[in-house]
Amino acid sequence: MHARRQLEREELGEEKLVILGSGWAAHAMLKVIDASKFRVTVVSPVNHFAFTPMLPSAATGTVEYRSMTESVSRSNPYVEYVEASARAVDAEEGKVSLDDGTSIEYDKLVCAVGVRVNDAVRGAEHCFRLKQVEDAVALRRAISRNFEKAARTGDNRLVTYVVVGGGPTGVELAGELCDFIKDVGRRFKKLAPKVVLVHAGAQLLQQFENPQRVEALRALQAQGVDVRLGVKVSEVRDGEMVVDDNILPFGIAIWCAGTMAQPFMETFLRGLPSEAKAGRGFVAVDDWLRVRGTQDIFALGDCARLERFYPQTAQVAAQQGAFLARHLNRGYDGSTPPRLPHSSPNWEQFWVSVVRRASEAPTFDFLDLGMLAYLGGGAALSQLRFGDLPLGAYSGSAAYLLWKSVYLVKQVATRNRVLVTFDWFKTALFGRDITRL
Ligand code: FAD
User: Please, where are the H alpha helices in 33-121?
Assistant: First the structure.
């Protein structure tokens, strides 16, 4: 791996590998890719990776943003980073056009641009989102601004939080908001802050098994969350939203209901063969994550669709990133199915071919390790698995300890583990900080 030995610039590989995005899939690639084989360029509007499961904690001040991020240069010091968004791809010429007016040539291209929040409802611009660090920063600022303002004016609407969407993001955010209110609310005794969770489905957390969905509802309601199931938001206005013909006033609304393809995907798909179009702006890839109908373009994570269904999770995206990097490091060519080079120039390739008793590249296979969700009040849900083998479902404080341990272990570097641990101690000892910077 790159960190094991210092590479000189002239020792970097010649083949130009361009990676679009710096999220879960791209980051996993950066950790594994061999810079002596590829000259890697990362194109992304943000210069860091963010540990997205902790965005609700970052938005409410339980952890700091910088504790759960890692800059591209820290992830892999041998890659070049370009701060821009991809606008279009010329697959014939092997070129990506960027929004800063420049373009970059590639020999191999990896599209890992993720998805965006599906806020296609009238007036959704009045809501906050929670998809990237920038969103958590904006939300945290607004939360503290509204608390101060409500304390001055006595207007409880300002401290009414409406979370739209009862998936993991919405549920975790509602739980974190309860913790925040319990903690900060002690300093603003005259206020009556409130959390409302609005969800179109009949149950929360569809991804979990039924007893856990029931437990999520019970835990949130026990903390005073007003959970409204089976209702739809038809319009959002400044300070209120229409929910099934009723008006729901809010101080802060956060839209966490569903995802859709990034705008870039439209132009990207336009230049690709028809078999690459998976519908609704997603790109179809084969079992080796190659965009269908191409040889040198790959797609990973939330923006890609394999024939077999995989959920849009960090787990899938990271495993795909590591898979593709290993696959490229081993020198598989672009034929179908991908094969090792004719000569086996190193021992790794030799053993891969011996162990697999074939020169054919293995296909991507997801190893499901289960799911976790924080519910607030020191309770969580955990559903553990090892592939197809269920390892038990837990809830309450035991699951919370597990949630904390897993999130700590899963941090991408020791630096993050230390910082997150420190943040947790700081919050437990001194409470959440509402200083607005
Ligand atoms: P992303 O991680 O979204 O990365 C996309 C990257 O592409 C970003 O760096 C973005 O800036 C960049 N980009 C966008 N457009 C362009 C462009 N035009 N050109 C170049 N770059 C571009 N999953 C779990 O497994 N467990 C969890 O507990 C969990 N919790 C979550 C909590 C929250 C609040 C959120 C938002 C998500 C959570 N997820 C969780 C889902 C997980 O974050 C996603 O599945 C994962 O991020 C997908 O990885 P990705 O690399 O495909 O996309």
Answer: 55-59, 72-75
ipTM passes above 0.90: yes
* Domain interval for residue 107: 2-114+262-355
Burial of 281 (0-12, 13-18, 19+ CB in 10 A): middle
CA of 24 to the centre of ligand 1 (A): 6
With a CB cutoff of 8 Å and minimum separation 6, the contacts of 398 are none
Query: Sign of dihedral through CA atoms 357, 360, 361, 366?
Result: negative
Query: For residue 347, what are the contacts with CB-CB under 8 A and spacing of at least 6?
Result: none
- Specify if 362 maps to a domain: no
pTM: 0.93
> Are both 206 and 60 inside the same structural domain?
no
Q: How far apart are CA 40 and CA 27, in angstroms?
A: 12
Q: For 244-296, what is each residue's pLDDT tens digit?
A: 989 999 999 999 998 999 999 999 999 999 999 999 999 999 999 999 999 89
Q: Would 360 be classed as within a structural domain?
A: no
Q: To 5 degrees, how large is the angle CA 208–CA 212–CA 218?
A: 130
Counting ligand 1 atoms within 8 A of each CB, the residue from 47, 52, 269 with the most, and so the one to mutate, is: 52
Question: Going by DSSP bridges, is the β-strand pair 108-111/15-20 parallel, antiparallel, or unpaired?
Answer: parallel
